[in-house]
Amino acid sequence: MGRAPPPAQSHGWRIYADFLLSAGHTRIAVAAQSSVYWASGARILRDYLAPRGGTVIELDMGALAPTAVCDELVDNRATALLLLVGHPEPAVSIVKSVRHDERLAEILIGAPAGQPEFAEWATLLGDDGAAIPFLRYLPERLSPLGARVGTALCERLTEAPSFVAFEGYDTVAVLAEVLRSHGADRARIAEAWPRVAVEGTRGEIQFSRTPGISVWQWAWTPIQVVDRDPAEPDRFRILHAG
After folding, report:
1. Following CA atoms 109, 113, 115, 117 in sequence, which dihedral angle do they give, to the nearest 10 degrees?
2. What three-state secondary structure class fits 208?
3. In whole angstroms, what is the distance from residue 56 CA to residue 170 CA?
4. H or E element at residue 66
5. Collapsed DSSP state (helix, strand, coil) of residue 142
6. Contact assessment for residue 56 and residue 45, using Cβ atoms and an 8 Å cutoff
7. Which of 154, 158, 165, 169 is nearest to 118 (CA)?
8. Mean pLDDT, rounded, of the chain
């Protein structure tokens, strides 16, 4: 039996599955590399979609070249392809192959793990990288703290920060508060997690532990499904929220 996926991954990927169903996609191919994370994601999607009439077709990217993915999509009559693979490769090559195959003009390409968020994605793919929905762990509107942090990050990075930058800030903020309040003793820190409450850029951060999971997590971050606007690839469109 496989290890249970973390609550945050389960929650986010189920929201993504809801988005796929609401958009009419029931035959969904996943181009997956071998890893615990990708295997967990595929299992979440399969377990959630199957009772709702959805089918998940797994394409092993350890055995398939990016160009061969197109034939598999046609043969399996898939209407959506999800990229459960590394960035930039093979993700970029798969997108290019699918986008330039006339048989697949109507297929939806998705990337639940968030690869299209990064500036490098737009640089490498241009217009081909737009309209690829992904999960972004941000609220519709940032808190005042989030807005201030976003402005500071933008000045430092000279570009709009990704959701990963806000995750990084929140991680440091939590660790700083725990060390400030409880010192560096590992046992005291371990005992502190149930009582942690820190103002983060995306809301108040508190931790819980789900049965079967051995770590404490901020399980319910705000979640969106977004993509890059084909008319303006530097702008993100919110397609679905949970």
Report:
1. 100
2. strand
3. 34
4. helix 66-75
5. coil
6. yes
7. 165
8. 92
- 31 three-class SS: strand
Walk across the sheet containing 232-241 and list its strands: 134-136, 224-229, 232-241
The per-type count for the chain, helices as H runs and strands as E runs, is 8, 9
Predicted confidence (pLDDT) at residue 171 exceeds the cutoff of 70? yes
Whether 8 has a pLDDT exceeding 70, the answer reads no
C-alpha 26/C-alpha 53 separation (Å) is: 7
Angle at 214 between CA 19 and CA 178, to 5 degrees: 95
The predicted-structure confidence for 176-220, as pLDDT tens digits, reads as follows 999 999 999 999 999 999 999 999 999 999 998 877 777 888 877
Q: Are 57 and 27 in contact (CB under 8 A)?
A: yes
SS3 183: coil
> What is the C-alpha to C-alpha distance for residues 64 and 66, in angstroms, rounded to an integer?
6
Does the pLDDT at position 128 exceed 60? yes
Cβ count within 10 A of residue 202: 21
Helices (H), 110-214: 119-125, 144-157, 163-182, 186-192
Radius of gyration of the chain (CA): 19
Q: How many CB atoms lie within 10 A of CB 147?
A: 12
Question: Is 28's pLDDT higher than 50?
Answer: yes
For β-strands 224-229 and 134-136, DSSP reports them as: antiparallel
**Residue holding tokens 């697949």?**
104
**Residue 199: per-residue pLDDT:** 95
Tell me the two tokens of residue 187: 């046992």
Contact 32, 59 (CB under 8 A): yes
